[in-house]
């Protein structure tokens, strides 16, 4: 492994993902900018490099096995390994998403990106992460996926698309299982909630900036070796599952 910390951020060409890449890059890390769209990916890499960050593009469609395998090979070749994985890529599936009229195909598409995509990328990158001295995995979730908050009287989660909400609950459950299996390996894996951030995912209706939304991922990516694993956090602390 390189002495320089290497991180891969998925969906890093814009919004929260870009700010996560920028924040980690500002620490002197080398950043793999994972994204499907070539033009947006190249633009993001150019912008990061212009600000003094050591960044390189990683063509990556998290829903495609071959694309993910190629991304892992590229990182191994370009960087020699991987220390930190931030699973940020996600879609909402559009709206409205009312349970009684929800198209099953919408659920399938959202879960393929937001959950199966995370599994696909994580498992492909794990061999390199196991070779790191301080490996970290951050799964970007949302408090709307918290079953505790969803069922607490007086808490209104707002008009959240059903498939998106369920995908984040699913992601939280998967993260817990990864933490159980990887316990004792040194790999810390946690979920982070960015808060209601203004991105194209919500039509820029959020009240937080992408940089503010990225802060939790940066904190979880830089946890000390005795830091938590299998937990769900936002800027204020632990979020109930």
From TrEMBL:
GO molecular function, a single term: oxidoreductase activity
SUPFAM superfamilies listed in its UniProt record: NAD(P)-binding Rossmann-fold domains (SSF51735)
Pfam name, any one: adh_short
Keywords tagged on the record: NADP, Oxidoreductase
Superkingdom in the source lineage: Bacteria
Listed GO CC annotations: membrane
Keyword NADP: yes
Protein's UniProt keywords contain Ubl conjugation: no
InterPro entries associated with the record: NAD(P)-bd_dom_sf, SDR_fam
PANTHER family: (+)-NEOMENTHOL DEHYDROGENASE, SHORT-CHAIN DEHYDROGENASE_REDUCTASE
Protein family per UniProt: Belongs to the short-chain dehydrogenases/reductases (SDR) family.
Protein name: SDR family NAD(P)-dependent oxidoreductase
